[in-house]
Description:
Shape: globular
Strand content: under 5%
Radius of gyration: 19 Å
Oligomer: single chain
Order of helices and strands: HHEEHHHHHEEHHH
Structural class: mainly alpha
Strand order of the largest sheet: 1-2
Amino acid sequence: MIHFIELLQSANKPLFVFGFCDFIAAAICLLLSQVSKIRVRGANAWYKPFKFFLSIGIFAWTMGLFTSYLPMPDAVNAYSWMVIILLGFLEIYIAIQAGRGQLSHYNSSTPVYGFLLFLMIISAVVVTLWTAYIGILFCSIDFPALPAYYVLSIRISIFLFVIFAFQGASMGSRQSHTVGGPEGGPALPITDWSKKHGDLRVAHFIGIHALQVLPLLSYYVFKSNIAVLMLTLFYSSLAVFSLTRAISGKPLVSYPL
């Protein structure tokens, strides 16, 4: 584990430090969720920033490792600081709103909230598009020092991440992540995924974390291009299945389980 941490630190120090700070912030939010009674739409207010800090921390460390393979230090440095600035803003705003017991997403109740929501959307779009550009760079360069199946998994996982990151726009357009019923109600712990209605966050979560799942499994388990393609087919099918289930108004896990 120590060797892995040292590898991540040497791969991309700005994104390593950013991710490390995210994990500390996630731990603080989880602690606050145990002592705070602030609730937003029926859920503990601190679960949302906890999930975002944790997920973005994992994203930062993952892309820090992947970008270290690119022989383009200036492009990598620009991408790294873009991620830190834009996603850092998004995280801070979500945490501040949680502490105030206010919505961050879907909140345009005042001109200020509407403007900040617009900035959140722009930040997410820019990060996603720039990550897609990193994926294009991976497809245009050979990596003879890396296993071919590992490189293939990175290329595929980046574009799956991009597709399902933009799937999040379906929630923004609806101003809700629940399909077939109102927000709130019976939900899974911490994730807050609905147990009574369809929840678009499930497919979003599965899809964006292809960025970690596919390369890890390809590197340590599925060590061939064919196996990686089969894994991709299965994983993509799982994400699409969860999306179609949510669109039809059906939960991942039914109430009252």
